[in-house]
From TrEMBL:
InterPro entries: L24e/L24_sf, Ribosomal_eL24, Ribosomal_eL24-rel_N, Ribosomal_eL24_CS. Keywords: Ribonucleoprotein, Ribosomal protein. The keyword Ribonucleoprotein applies. Residues 111-155 are annotated as: Disordered. It comes from the Eukaryota. Pfam families: Ribosomal_L24e (PF01246). This is Large ribosomal subunit protein eL24-related N-terminal domain-containing protein. Residues 127-136, 146-155 have a biased composition (Basic residues). It comes from Euplotes crassus. Residues 111-126 have a biased composition (Basic and acidic residues). Residues 4-65 form the Large ribosomal subunit protein eL24-related N-terminal domain. One of its GO terms (cellular component) is cytosolic large ribosomal subunit.
Length: 155
């Protein structure tokens, strides 16, 4: 069987059934006091944090179990690096630890390579177009039948 207990408004101690004193203010707010002592101190407007025997004072001054609960630390999760397909772990770490100068050099190298590739492609296209212009078939200038209309090809 569970006994219903309430907390004292002033001292925060448990008040068991048949004990304590309930006070109801004019505005309807109820206060439950453990003893005459707590009731008297409440009406004298004494702060609970100033009295060493109250849990409030113990919390404020970090005494007992309150201090122990604050010291609990959680473990931090550790990250593990894994190799990616096509790159080893050593390669990833090398790239990660590069300085800005090294990165800039790599960037300029890559850009130059891309420019060379593009220039090569353009040259190949020009060569292919020159080859096409030189060879003209007579068949291109013949008449072609397309959907009932006569059209000339090559224009």
């Amino acid at each position: 069987m569970v006994t219903k207990t309430e907390l004292c408004h002033f001292s925060e101690y448990k008040v068991y059934p048949g004990r304590g004193h309930r006070f109801v203010r004019k505005d309807g707010r109820t206060f439950f006091f453990l003893s005459r002592k707590t009731r008297s101190l409440h009406f004298q407007k004494v702060k609970t944090s100033d009295l060493t025997w109250t849990p409030m004072w113990r919390r404020k001054n970090r005494k007992g179990a309150y201090a122990k609960a604050a010291r609990v630390r959680t473990k931090r999760t550790t990250r593990k690096m894994k190799a990616v397909v096509g790159m080893s772990l050593a390669e990833i770490n090398r790239i990660r630890n590069q300085g800005t100068k090294e990165r800039d050099e790599m960037r300029t190298k890559i850009k130059e390579e891309q420019k060379k590739k593009k220039a090569k492609q353009i040259e190949q296209r020009k060569a292919a177009q020159k080859g096409k212009k030189g060879k003209k078939d007579k068949a291109q200038f013949g008449k072609q039948q397309k959907q009932g209309k006569v059209r000339r090809a090559g224009f």
